[in-house]
Design goal:
The chain is an alpha/beta fold. It contains 22 helices and 31 strands. The two termini are 44 Å apart. Bound molecules: adenosine-5'-diphosphate (ADP) and zinc ion (2 copies).
């Protein structure tokens, strides 16, 4: 007789016992058919009431004495398997990212809401093109930019989805109505969604794909057809035709009767991009975004489940679209940090996508101009098939990059935030009526200490990350806890100008107003974009040339095309290098590459000025030459020497407590659990810390971190499980524990 098989069952979603599975015996007759994700009937509780649940795991050995286990009654047929898939996914997420099963389920399944009758609106042009061009000219004269945007869009596409016009073109309902009143267009509402984009002949002229593009699509689809769906990484600069490849792969996949998820960071979900998808897929494509209500989200969920759409486009949550025949997951700009969730479970979309694609037999296609170290490492190891697209199809040459050493500026007596070179170029571009972007890299720079004379940054002697200033003038390392007193003079050059670095966008704005009183400047940072839609408004205004200079933080470097920008100034390029994070160089390289890529997108060649204290740092040198491969080679060396991901895996454990000592003790206990587990496991690993976290106290709660590095990700998962079990058995309500992998 075979050994009996056991199944872990999650009881129905509405039930409160979601947080742990219940184990059941799989009866003989179900052994060959029961699969993870199946819906089953089981006896539950004292009364053995029959309720339904989902199978989340199958096991050869029981976790409990066998005589304590009941048997599964049967498999429910006719159930949508979509729900089952989502539950299996939630279980996987919970075990890999921590948190409760309920939190994981809420992440992957939208809360049930009453269905509203969904109507769809579209905007139709009602005058002919000649008449329209007269109106367009008039709007141009009067600077009616919103009308101009809409009418120009209608010039190329006489019918447009209403949401696209409102949300992406940024044309308000009153404006649309006033144009309707004038008789230029008509808004119609239908209960069913029909292909709103009526493509005319112009749209049918598709490009001849380049051989590089064709090669990618063919490879992906051939692998898929051979039932060997693969994982691919497309490394290609902006404008190299990646989006066209995504559309091609999606198209071929849909033709075969499968569905496709396309993730695009919200900030890059532009009108132009969406229109390209609408044109190809019409009413079979749908878009989700973070501003949708729960009802709207649920609506999309049902449409996908019923098979009414083939392609979904959206930010990371679109990954949880319950397609029943998923054929491909495509992730654009896969390196983006917005693909990591800030909420529990703190999942990473790329990793989840890899898991989902594996389970569902779908292709996984990642694309980026600056791939994450993790993905490129996998490509180099052969886990992903790597494709490279090298030429810019839109023409335009790479910008000319000047690296300015800020130490030289200070030595020659320039104490302003602008180097002589940058000023000279700003004068030149402004006098020619061209546009400028000034970018200050301020990602997480609070608290680090640097020398204004030589750029020296105080770093931990053990971890090679910057030390952070704490109250009382002590410097603390947030990886290992090493502390030392705040130096009075720079250890490198003896200068007294050593302090925390505090230059912001506002300061730049003031300086610009002083230097160029007649230039029009816009500022974009966390303060000026708090209101919904304000970011789009600023970007649009700049694009419409209502300003000469755009000053901003990392937000300004993404996505958008500004053909009139011929100069990009990066004011303190190495600031992000000093962040106490092992990814500092990677982030810096990505930001600089993207920022530099903003210059010279139009017919005029662009110039870039990178101001830095570390002109010889590899992330700056390679970004200036736009040489990803050179950057990768240097960086992977560092990661491997210092045992950081992707070469080693990293688990961060955050302990939040009301009592500082108690928190520290708990973190020590976790360290002991981890060390014991590592000692008995295969592979190599060790723990570092515990130490106070980067932000050591929030709302009077103390935060300690402990890091565990290991060659094997699954060992880190085991350590997390062991700690969770420990916490469950000794629930100290006053202490919270959070886990974060890599
Ligand atoms: P990416 O996504 O890499 O930025 P896109 O797919 O958006 O690149 O392509 C950049 C531009 O080149 C777009 O305007 C697109 O319409 C155009 N394009 C894409 N593929 C081709 C091609 N094979 N021939 C000519 N133009 C192309
Ligand atoms: Zn110094
Ligand atoms: Zn340290």
């Amino acid at each position: 007789m075979n050994s009996p098989l056991y199944a872990d069952i999650i009881i129905e979603i509405s039930h409160e016992h979601l947080d742990r599975p219940f184990q059941y015996i799989v009866p003989d007759e179900l052994r060959s058919v029961l699969r993870v994700g199946d819906s089953v009937n089981v006896p539950f509780g004292r009364s053995n009431k029959i309720i339904s649940g989902y199978c989340i795991e199958l096991k050869d050995t029981p976790d409990y004495p066998e005589d304590k286990l009941k048997s599964i009654i049967d498999i429910r047929t006719g159930e949508m398997c979509a729900e089952g898939n989502m539950i299996v996914l939630a279980w996987w997420m919970r075990s890999h990212y921590g948190g409760t099963m309920i939190q994981a389920l809420k992440t992957v399944i939208p809360v049930k809401k009453k269905m509203t009758v969904k109507t769809h609106k579209r905007v139709d042009l009602t005058v002919d093109r000649d008449a329209l061009s007269v109106v367009i000219e008039e709007c141009e004269k009067k600077h009616h930019t919103a009308r101009l945007r809409l009418l120009s869009a209608l010039m190329s596409e006489p019918t447009l989805p209403y949401e696209l016009v409102r949300d992406k073109l940024g044309v308000t309902s009153p404006t649309i109505r006033s144009l309707e009143d004038k008789g230029y267009l008509r808004v119609t509402e239908t209960e069913y969604y029909r292909n709103p984009v009526v493509t005319d002949e112009q749209a049918h002229t598709r490009y001849e794909l380049s051989s590089g593009q064709r090669d990618i699509i063919t490879t992906v689809i051939n692998d898929f057809d051979a039932a060997r769906p693969g994982r691919y990484l497309i490394h290609g600069i902006t404008g190299s035709g990646k989006t066209e490849v995504y559309i091609g792969i999606a198209d071929e996949t849909v033709r075969r009767g499968y569905q496709v998820i396309v993730l695009i960071p919200e900030i890059s979900l532009t009108y132009q991009t969406l229109l390209r998808f609408y044109k190809r897929f019409g009413d079979r494509v749908s878009v989700v975004n973070s501003s949708m209500t729960q009802g709207e989200r649920y609506d999309q969920y049902l449409r996908a489940r019923r098979g009414e759409i083939d392609v979904i486009i959206g930010p990371r949550s679109a990954l949880f679209t319950p397609f029943t025949r998923l054929g491909a997951i495509i992730i654009d700009e896969e390196h983006e940090t917005s693909y990591r969730s800030e909420n529990v479970p703190r999942y990473k979309a790329v990793n989840c996508a890899e898991y989902i694609a594996g389970v569902r037999g779908a292709s996984l296609v990642l694309g980026s101009a600056t791939p994450s170290m993790e993905s490129y490492y996998k490509a180099v190891k052969g886990e992903y098939k790597l494709f490279t697209l090298e030429e810019r199809l839109t023409g335009g040459s790479l910008p000319m990059v000047h690296i300015v050493d800020l130490r030289d500026e200070l030595r020659s007596g320039n104490r302003t935030i602008f180097s002589d070179k940058l000023r000279e170029l700003m004068d030149e571009k402004l006098s020619r009526g061209e546009q400028i972007m000034l970018f200050i890299n301020r990602r997480g720079v609070a608290g680090f200490i640097s020398c204004r004379s030589c750029g020296y940054v105080v770093k931990c002697p053990h971890c090679d990350v910057s030390m952070t200033e704490h109250r009382g003038g002590r410097l603390v390392c947030h990886y290992c806890g090493h502390t030392e007193p705040m130096p009075k003079t720079c250890p490198e050059c003896g200068s007294r100008y050593i302090a925390g670095f505090r230059v912001g966008t506002e300061q730049i704005e003031t300086e610009i107003a002083r230097m160029y009183p007649r230039a029009r400047a816009l500022r974009m940072d966390a303060d000026t974009t708090r209101e919904r839609g304000s970011m789009e408004e600023i970007l649009r205004s700049f694009k419409d040339h209502n300003a000469d200079i755009l000053i901003g933080t990392q937000m300004i470097v993404k996505g958008h095309d500004f053909p009139l920008v011929t100069l990009v100034g990066i004011l303190a390029a190495d600031m992000s290098l000093s962040v106490s994070d092992y990814r500092a160089a990677e982030r810096t390289f990505q930001l600089l590459t993207q920022a530099a890529g903003r210059a010279g997108r139009g017919e005029h060649p662009g110039e870039v000025v990178i101001q830095t204290y570390q002109p010889e740092h590899y992330s700056i040198v390679t970004a200036a030459s736009q040489d990803y491969r050179a950057f990768y080679n240097e960086e992977i060396e560092f990661r491997s020497l210092a045992s950081y991901p992707p070469v080693r895996h990293l688990l961060e454990i955050l302990v939040v407590s009301e009592d500082e000592d108690e928190g520290m003790r708990m973190a020590q206990t976790y360290k002991t659990i981890a060390d014991e587990s590592i000692a008995t496991a295969e592979g190599q690993g060790y723990s570092i810390g515990p130490a106070p976290a980067a932000i050591a106290r929030i709302r009077d709660r103390f935060r300690h971190v402990l890091y565990i590095k290991h060659t094997d990700m699954e060992e880190l998962v085991r350590i997390k499980d062991a700690i969770e079990t420990y916490v469950r058995n000794d629930p100290s309500r006053r202490i919270l524990t959070f886990f974060d992998f890599d």
